[in-house]
Amino acid sequence: MKTRSFAEELQYARAHTYAVGAFNIFNYLSARAVIRAASTLNCPVILQTSSATVRKFGPAELGTMLRQLAWNAPVNVLVHLDHCQDVELAKACIDSGWDAVMYDGSRLPLEDNIENCKKVVDYAHHRGVHVEGELGRIAGVEDDLKVKDDEATGATLEESIYFVRESGIDAFAPAIGTAHGVYKGTPKINFELVDQLRQAIDTPIVIHGGTGLSEETFLRLIQKGGAKINVSTALKHGYIDGCREYMEANPKKLDPIDFDQYLNCRIKDIAMDHMTIFRKPMQVR
Ligand code: 13P
Hints:
Blueprint: H1 6-15, E1 20-24, H2 28-41, E2 45-49, H3 51-57, H4 59-72, E3 77-84, H5 87-95, E4 100-103, H6 110-125, E5 130-135, E6 139-142, E7 145-147, H7 157-167, E8 171-174, E9 179-180, H8 191-200, E10 205-207, H9 215-224, E11 226-231, H10 233-249, H11 256-278
The structure holds 1,3-dihydroxyacetonephosphate.
1,3-dihydroxyacetonephosphate binds next to β3, β11 and α10.
């Protein structure tokens, strides 16, 4: 079911102080489990795909699968491409039915990042698709994207305002000190920047690196303006740990449907736990 577009859904979340959960799925089972979680909570959800996942399936095959799942869901399901550094791959996803794409030019000089973002925005907007952009570099590992701690840089307020205005993006991911993967210590998050950005720009703010943040941190980020929160590593752990647990508990069982059902529940619960927090500060609906 499609009700609001990607940009509308994030604007709505921003206006009502909650965040839409954006989960990186990697196969049919994980996509279905996240949709089941959203359906149980009766809330919108974003299914994200990394560039590596898109390359593995091919944009046409993956797009067909995800569009079909989204179409049959009882809630609004939006399909988004996460961290794409390749303008041509972003265009291929736009042509294959994604609702939104993230062009990640954060490793480039500011003007080059803006120029490439604009190319994607131009192509996407002509086709009714929305675009997320990033400024500063977010540390950690997200599939084939690796940014070492000493390569990470924080976004600044002035550059962020300039970047958002010049690029024409619909959602903005500033590097605020969160990271992809498992946190080694407590992250040093620039809450103030999120707060200042919310007041300075109308564009919804995206929080990356959702795995491992505390409930208190999530709520603070949402109160300050985070309207989309990305979660990936937690789902991967649920899937792989769930496989191990099932095999250990049922070494002789030959029942793939039961196995899938077990993994489905593991991933659904993880997605539900996150979305329940993301919707806590909400005042309406
Ligand atoms: P985590 O893997 O830390 O949940 O981060 C997800 C993310 O930000 C995807 O872009």
